[in-house]
Amino acid sequence: MKYIGGKEIISYYYESVYKKIWGKSKLLEPFEKFLEFLSPEKPTRILEAGGGSECSHIKYVHKIPSEKYVVLDPVLPTAQVRALFKKQYPFLEFQKGVLEEIPFPRDYFDHIKITCVLHHVNDIFKSLQEIRRVSKNNCELVILIPTDPGFLNSAIKSVFTYKKINKISIYPADLIYSLDHRNSIHSIISVLKYVFKDDSIKFFYLPFFVKSINFNLVWTCKIKIRK
């Protein structure tokens, strides 16, 4: 049997499977809109952490920054895609990088958006520390992540998502998610509470607003930094 690493399996998923499953999906649209609703009215510098090669959240942004909107991701869109986005959103900047080492100085951003990325980072503790480092005093953070492995989230994946993936993927869906979602929602919340213990934190559970990881699909959080 030929040896293959977890990184290769994840790369295969995003290159050959992900767009076919999620490319035209509107599942996250109401949650993305809610995240924008939580965002401050007049930001100066925005960081979108883990914007992805498709910059999927930018189309929901209507609270325009006065200076810049930085999309940070290890994989940037192609030059052609970046040019199209820049034409539509002149304030947009693209920065290659990871959350564990954000390439910006301390106290730089007054608003940070984090969408569906904290499950994937290699070092969740360092990532959240870095996010706080580049946040100015009174910076507002908004975070959205799926409630994986909550009951409702897992049930929907088993009934719908896994079946779709298994039809077209050479690797089983449960293996892909095990490798790709290395940080559980419970671990993320525990670390987040510690890193931001001196700040103001509000949790939201969607779509049912019942305070439960198991009976919602998405967990969102709003943090106001106090330095």
Summary tags:
Rossmann fold, seven-stranded mixed sheet, 7 strands
CATH evolutionary superfamily: Vaccinia Virus protein VP39
CATH architecture title: 3-Layer(aba) Sandwich
Order of helices and strands: HHEEHEEHEHHHEE
**CATH hierarchy class name:** Alpha Beta
Largest sheet: 7 strands, mixed
Q: Give the N-terminus to C-terminus distance in angstroms.
A: 54 Å
Global structural class: alpha/beta
Backbone shape: globular
Continuous helix count = 7
- Compute the average pLDDT: 92
CATH topology: Rossmann fold
Spatially, the strands of the biggest sheet line up as 3-2-1-4-5-7-6
Fraction of residues in helix: 25-40%
Poorly predicted ranges: none
Number of strands: 7
Can you characterise this structure?
The protein is an alpha/beta fold and 227 residues long. The protein has a single domain, classed as 3-Layer(aba) Sandwich (Rossmann fold). Helices cover 37% and strands 22% of the residues. The protein has helices at residues 6-22, 29-38, 79-88, 124-133, 151-168, 173-180, 185-195; strands at residues 45-49, 68-73, 92-96, 109-115, 135-146, 200-206, 218-224. A seven-stranded mixed beta sheet has the order 3-2-1-4-5-7-6. Strand 4, helix 4 and strand 5 form a beta-alpha-beta unit. The N and C termini lie far apart (54 Å). The model has no long low-confidence stretch (mean pLDDT 92).
In brief:
Helix content is 37%, strand content 22%. It has 227 residues and is of the alpha/beta class. The protein has a single domain, classed as 3-Layer(aba) Sandwich (Rossmann fold).
Secondary-structure map:
Elements: H1 6-22, H2 29-38, E1 45-49, E2 68-73, H3 79-88, E3 92-96, E4 109-115, H4 124-133, E5 135-146, H5 151-168, H6 173-180, H7 185-195, E6 200-206, E7 218-224
Parallel strand pairs: 1-2, 1-4, 2-3, 4-5
Antiparallel strand pairs: 5-7, 6-7
